[in-house]
């Protein structure tokens, strides 16, 4: 696939290759847009905003519903593109699942609304709270869920009357370009646009964060990059939604059933090959069932086929890029000097790395203290629950966490002691569009999803009469 098309009226003449991580072969090319291209896209978005922001709410909702339907119409095409450039499997919790989720999220977001709220209506006067669109929203998306996260960014912006310029990761731009084309087919001109670049000579993301014509940045990615986005956005006082990294902990209580929770533990940690912000990155298991949990977890992991994502039999694919592969390999090699390798631990060919489980580690090990963002899970033994909770909280991150127990009431009570934005009982990472999602501490700023996430794309105006 060759996508040399630049935003309408721009001057990009060069492109960069996009590689399939399973084969290391080019699957297409994307435009290497310039700063002038970005300026032109923002200017068009500002012009489009003048009309789009005045569109009646019912019409905004109808447009967003059309976007959701269009994603469904092109679901298989988008899934194939995601697998080719991202590497994840078509099946399992792979590309088809991602596109299905993107369509569902778009549809649910279309159904939301932020009606005028009456704060006072008395003889002394009427006071109303209105939610007004911001302007041009800049969306910077990562490579792990290129379509779903783009939908998470774009749909609430559209639903609230904003226009959008989206910049995908240089590792996975093709599906986002096609997604925007699909959206453009049912939306007015220039309401949604895309700019792409390889980030080698020009950092379009940094330019967007500093751009005077962009009123809000929504960014999903690493904590380090999120801090830079926040810094460069400060001069223009941009609104920010930052969903950043996590080092999520799962805590297995002594009353849990090792056989019953094995599948949930595996997918909590290894969804998208572990390349998920809210995946479980550390697993604390009570000593009384430690060996049994390890045994059942490894047994389930051995049933999961790993291979080229385009092979219909594959459930997990390769790590997406060399830099991430090298990080996982480094952390695993360090862990092997102290821990006990229960599964995996040796790199495969190319960017393939098998699901790896390493037992008997502690907080001093890098695989525990750093976010690996890949298919490697450290298992830590504990005997005192208070100490396990303290260890889980001893992180600068606070995205998600989980409690695994046969006593749901006890699990809910313990959830309040975890320092993170989302807590799951007997599952991990199960986000949904009707529940706000965001991190505490250095895992982000603001929330996404539901009415709370929708409101982040608006300014408040209070009218007194």
TrEMBL record:
One of its GO terms (molecular function) is oxidoreductase activity, acting on the aldehyde or oxo group of donors, NAD or NADP as acceptor. SUPFAM superfamilies: ALDH-like (SSF53720). Pfam families: Aldedh. PROSITE patterns: ALDEHYDE_DEHYDR_CYS (PS00070), ALDEHYDE_DEHYDR_GLU (PS00687). It comes from the Bacteria. Residues 13-463 form the Aldehyde dehydrogenase domain. Keywords: Oxidoreductase. The active site is at residue 243. InterPro entries: Ald_DH/histidinol_DH, Ald_DH_C, Ald_DH_CS_CYS, Ald_DH_CS_GLU, Ald_DH_N, Aldehyde_DH_dom, LUC3-like. Transmembrane segments: none annotated. Belongs to the aldehyde dehydrogenase family. PANTHER family: ALDEHYDE DEHYDROGENASE-RELATED. This is Acyl-CoA reductase-like NAD-dependent aldehyde dehydrogenase.
């Amino acid at each position: 696939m060759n996508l040399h098309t630049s935003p309408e009226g721009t001057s990009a003449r060069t492109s960069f290759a996009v590689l399939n991580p399973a084969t290391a072969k080019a699957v297409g090319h994307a435009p290497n847009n310039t700063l002038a291209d970005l300026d032109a896209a923002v200017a068009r978005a500002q012009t489009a905003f003048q009309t789009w922001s005045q569109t009646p709410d019912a019409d905004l909702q109808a447009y967003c519903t059309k976007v959701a339907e269009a994603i469904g119409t092109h679901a298989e095409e988008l899934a194939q593109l995601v697998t080719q450039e991202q590497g994840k499997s078509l099946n399992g919790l792979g590309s088809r699942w991602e596109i299905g989720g993107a369509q569902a999220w778009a549809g649910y977001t279309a159904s939301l609304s932020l009606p005028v709220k009456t704060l006072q209506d008395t003889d002394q006067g009427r006071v109303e709270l209105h939610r007004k669109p911001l302007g041009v929203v800049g969306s910077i998306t990562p490579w792990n869920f290129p379509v779903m996260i783009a939908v998470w960014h774009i749909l609430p912006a559209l639903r609230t009357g904003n226009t959008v310029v989206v910049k995908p990761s240089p590792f996975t731009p093709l599906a986002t370009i096609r997604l925007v084309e699909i959206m453009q087919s049912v939306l007015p001109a220039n309401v949604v646009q895309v700019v792409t670049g390889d980030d080698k000579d020009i950092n379009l993301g940094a330019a967007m964060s500093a751009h005077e014509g962009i009123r809000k940045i929504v960014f999903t990615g690493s904590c380090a990059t999120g801090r830079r986005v926040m810094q460069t956005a400060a001069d223009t006082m941009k609104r920010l939604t930052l969903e950043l990294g996590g080092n999520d902990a799962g805590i297995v209580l002594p009353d849990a059933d090792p056989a019953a929770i094995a599948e949930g533990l595996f997918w909590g940690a290894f969804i998208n090959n572990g390349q998920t912000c809210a995946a479980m990155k550390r697993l604390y298991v009570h000593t009384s069932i430690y060996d049994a949990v390890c045994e059942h977890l490894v047994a389930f992991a051995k049933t999961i086929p790993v291979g080229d994502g385009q092979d219909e039999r594959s459930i997990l694919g390769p790590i997406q890029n060399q830099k991430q592969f090298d990080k996982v390999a480094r952390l695993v090699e360090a862990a092997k000097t102290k821990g006990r390798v229960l599964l995996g631990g040796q790199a495969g060919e190319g960017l393939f790395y098998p699901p790896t489980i390493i037992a008997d580690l502690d907080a001093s090990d890098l695989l525990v203290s750093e976010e690996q963002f890949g298919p490697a899970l450290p298992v830590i033994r504990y005997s005192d629950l208070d100490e396990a909770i303290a260890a889980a909280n001893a992180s600068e991150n606070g995205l998600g966490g989980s409690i695994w127990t046969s006593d749901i009431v006890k699990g809910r009570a313990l959830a309040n002691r975890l320092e993170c934005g989302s807590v799951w009982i007997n599952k991990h990472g199960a986000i949904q569009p009707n529940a706000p999602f965001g991190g505490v501490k250095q895992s982000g700023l603001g929330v996404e999803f539901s009415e709370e996430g929708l409101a982040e794309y608006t300014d408040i105006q209070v009218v007194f009469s």
